[in-house]
């Protein structure tokens, strides 16, 4: 019995080890009792040779006495039955004690990983997420449970580390424009000879920094909103077209594309889907914005949309900086900018992570392929509007 301490009074509760031991003991004692009964019956039937003699037959014992054969047989049967029963009960008791003790020891050894799971779970905290059971026993159900628990801890630890990195990166991103604004204000205010032009310059820097901070906050809100609707748990579903979102994104970036003298190739076929129009528009906008931002002078940009009865797709590609294919999955993590340093780079580094989250919320997939001469081509595939929406899905970054 294990004593569990509560707020009011301790209560007794049988443990799994004790229940297994009792079950094994009951089965062992029951089997032994059946064998003993069977032996008793067989001995009783075997010790009846006098049944084959004529009635009235006498037998002479070693002490000289003469007794009826049947009466002598009954005495022998009773004596041997009592002896068999007594010795059998003693043997059954000994076997039961040894069997129950062995079952208790074996059950304790078999359930040891469960105690390790319990103790590990009790020790888990922010500073102990690296602890694992690492069961090395037989490949049985207990080993499967221990392995599953370790795998769960790996996932929790990875998610916790990702959350800490996200918070640290978000804090850094927000602190940078705030530091710029404060520095500009302090320097300008400390300059007694500052004129109107200097104050205008300071106001321009502060405005740009505040705009960057505002854009970062908006991106964080969109990312949180998208991840909250992962697995097709969309709060809003309406018919929309990926081609419309791509066209709007191209129009919004037209000035920047003209400045960089980009060659733009478009093939915007209808791509009807059902989902959140705002999120899907942000998805197309992020892809086009990244394709322009990370392009180079006189580069290329291509955008294609289309659909079939099962799915709709949006393809956005660009020339630009060289990207290793092995680094592509990392680009879909928050605050990653394709190898550029965070400080001084344009954007918040949330563009592709928002694309992944929006795609996941709509039950789609996103793939990215690094171009041999530099640049990236990203393909988003979503269920077509006339297909049955899936209950849950996961946006997988394929390489």
TrEMBL record:
Domain of life: Bacteria
Sequence ranges assigned to domain HAMP in this UniProt record: 108-161
Lineage: Bacteria, Bacillati, Actinomycetota, Actinomycetes, Micromonosporales
Stored PANTHER family: SENSOR HISTIDINE KINASE TRCS, SENSOR HISTIDINE KINASE YKOH
Record-linked SUPFAM superfamilies: ATPase domain of HSP90 chaperone/DNA topoisomerase II/histidine kinase, HAMP domain-like, Homodimeric domain of signal transducing histidine kinase
Stated name of the protein: histidine kinase
Matching Gene3D superfamilies: 1.10.287.130, 6.10.340.10, Histidine kinase-like ATPase, C-terminal domain
Keyword tags: Kinase, Membrane, Phosphoprotein, Transferase, Transmembrane, Transmembrane helix, Two-component regulatory system
InterPro entries the UniProt entry points to: HAMP_dom (IPR003660), HATPase_C_sf (IPR036890), HATPase_dom (IPR003594), His_kinase_dom (IPR005467), HisK_dim/P_dom (IPR003661), HisK_dim/P_sf (IPR036097), Sig_transdc_His_kin-like_C (IPR004358), TCS_sensor_his_kinase (IPR050428)
GO molecular function, one term: kinase activity
TM region(s), chain numbering: 21-43, 84-107
Organism: Plantactinospora solaniradicis
Keyword Transferase: yes
Annotated EC: 2.7.13.3
Compartments it resides in: Cell membrane
Reaction it catalyzes: ATP + protein L-histidine = ADP + protein N-phospho-L-histidine
Domain Histidine kinase: 169-386
Protein's UniProt keywords contain Kinase: yes
CDD domains on file: HAMP, HATPase, HisKA
